[in-house]
Amino acid sequence: MSLSPPSSLRARAEALAGPLPPLQAQAEQLARTLLLGGHGRRQAGMGDEFWQYRPAEPGDAGRSIDWRRSGRSDGHFVREKEWQSAQSVHLWADLSASMGFSSDKNHPTKQERAGLLTMALAILLMKGGERVALASLGTPPRIGALQLRRIAEGLRADPSPERAEYGAPDATSFLPRSRAVFLSDFLGPIEPVERAIGAAADRGITGLLYQILDPAEEAFPFQGRTIFTSMAGGLRHETLRASDLRDRYLDRLAERKAQLAHLAHQAGWRFATHHTNTPAQPALLWLYEGLEGAR
């Protein structure tokens, strides 16, 4: 067996002990402001009250099966406790090209804001004993520092020029009766969002739809000759009088918001819109308290 030279071991150790990814450090600071404001979890412990029996599913640990109850039937059953039934949260942050837009160098991109909120929310949830998963990683909800680091890495911008113009959530792998948060501009086709919400609702999953927009996308301040190009370059439109498009654009944006609100209402979810030129703390508070209400 060959041993690594001391210099190699030291380099690897320093890499492991290095500073937190910038996004995680920034999110830690944001989460701390919320906790200092007295918005931490108010319930104590993990809870011991029996809630229900449910059929065992692939992935359930053998120790979670209630063998006495299972012995009275042909199947295996898991004994769930009330608080434990909703302790897993799936987070989906849109990493598509559209989210890379910012109309002002002093404002974060939509993806940067979505990543910050996702990371800070994961930190808050884990501090409260919740298991968290980033949907794009395809891994189950977990807790701990390693999981936070995975999430931070998973939220890094995709440099690939082939990435999709718009993102699409997928809830098919989410745990039943868990909770979920979708963060996106939701400016692409609505059908994938409808399918994801429907799949989640069918599995007893509750959660939040959070639309993140740049202020220019809300106000449409364009005038005169303007060339509109999508972030990935697949869409392009030129006009000599951009102001003539304003009313039509605002009507379509209002229609999209109404569609999203209706989808959320039907599924028992909540919907809100956030703008990147506003502070992140109120947005994080809405998300955190919204998930508490989604139990």
TrEMBL record:
Q: Which residues form the DUF58 domain?
A: 52-257
Please provide an example of a Pfam family that matches this protein in its UniProt record.
DUF58
Q: What is this protein called?
A: DUF58 domain-containing protein
Concerning InterPro entries, the annotation shows: DUF58
Q: Which domain of life is it from?
A: Bacteria
